[in-house]
Design brief:
By secondary structure, the protein is α/β, with parallel strands linked by helices. The chain has a single domain, classed as ComB-like (putative 2-phosphosulfolactate phosphatase, Alpha-Beta Complex), CATH 3.90.1560. Helix content is 34%, strand content 19%. Strands 1-8-2-7 form a four-stranded parallel sheet, sandwiched between helices. Helix 6 crosses helix 7. The chain is globular. It binds (2R)-3-sulfolactic acid. (2R)-3-sulfolactic acid binds next to loops.
């Protein structure tokens, strides 16, 4: 029998899914999990995800850069916001980062009962798929959404992963079927398709016309990211 793949479309649905003994992939395409992959691929030593702005600021020191956002904008007093473009090798190599974001970092904490927690973004799609296929374990694709609402970009990405796992894994899941349909619908031009996403519209209102396209660069940061000892590290 093949291992299963499931999709959790919103953090509110996580308690309905048994994640013990499974690999959970955290997905927040815009932008937390994309930023995490970019920073670690560009040489950051570790990223500590925390829930609150106050907790993040308590780390501020010579040893930690404090990063993150609230409602899409850099939080006050932080060194960095949450755009992958801010995390170039020049500024991030060899550094430890503490990160808090509106949705994504909370999901990492919510998944603590999982056997293994990994980070998924378009930046590391192929590396992640290779790992999931080889590990032969049940997989839960956990979409961060936006403030507990389902969103298009995380669901679309979960569809790409399930499509790639269709030989190694099996499912009986309506969210998986929905996500696969989304892949079909978006396949001509997934970036253009996602311009209708509410978070893409939010970015526009904030004057950010770049990050959607950036976060859709397939395999631009081919790094496998694991959560280990309260930190995200490149494996
Ligand atoms: O909510 C999050 O975790 C962030 O990724 C949101 S934002 O894209 O930085 O606005």
């Amino acid at each position: 029998m093949k291992p299963t793949v499931e999709i959790v479309l919103s953090p509110l649905l996580l308690p309905l899914t048994d994640i013990k003994g499974k690999v959970v992939v955290i997905i927040d395409i815009l932008r937390a999990t994309s930023t995490i992959c970019a920073a670690l691929d560009n040489g950051a030593k570790s990223i500590t995800p925390v829930i609150s702005v106050e907790e993040a600021l308590s780390y501020q020191s010579d040893s930690y850069l404090v990063a993150g956002e609230r409602n899409g904008e850099k939080a006050e007093g932080f060194d960095f916001g949450n755009s992958p473009l801010e995390y170039s090798r020049e500024v991030i190599e060899g550094k430890h980062v503490v990160l808090t974001t509106t949705n994504g970092t909370k999901c990492i904490h919510a998944a603590k009962d999982a056997d293994e927690i990994l980070i998924g973004s378009f930046f590391n799609l192929s590396v992640l798929v290779d790992y999931l296929q080889a590990s032969n374990k049940p997989v839960v694709l956990f979409c961060a959404g936006w403030k507990n609402q389902v969103n298009l970009e995380d669901t679309l990405y979960a569809g790409y992963i399930t499509q790639a796992l269709s030989n190694s894994h099996e499912w009986e899941s309506d969210p998986v079927e929905m996500a696969l349909d989304l892949v079909e619908k978006a396949k001509k031009d997934p970036t253009h398709y996602l311009t209708r996403a509410s978070h893409a519209k939010r970015f526009k209102r904030l004057g950010n016309n770049i990050d959607l396209g950036v976060c859709m660069e397939f395999n631009a940061h081919p790094v496998l990211v694991k959560y280990h000892n309260n930190k995200l590290v490149s494996a």
